[in-house]
Write a structure and sequence with these properties.
Layout lengths: L4 H26 L22
Protein name: ATP synthase complex subunit 8
Keywords: CF(0), Hydrogen ion transport, Ion transport, Membrane, Mitochondrion, Transmembrane, Transmembrane helix, Transport
InterPro entries: ATP8_metazoa
Length: about 50
């Protein structure tokens, strides 16, 4: 039935969009960056000077 084709295109678009969003959310929240432990004495003012 050719007159039903737009409904299938719409469902395919919605399905692929949902799959794309779920894939991106899973990849974003599965990555946990390691936060470096920064102590006050680890950062010295001499290392923050510009070397011109």
């Amino acid at each position: 039935m050719p007159q039903m084709a737009p409904i299938s295109w719409l469902t395919l678009f919605i399905a692929f969009s949902v799959i794309l969003l779920v894939f991106n959310f899973v990849n974003y929240y599965s990555f946990l960056p390691k936060s470096p432990e920064i102590s006050q004495n680890a950062i010295s003012t001499s290392s923050m000077n510009w070397k011109w």
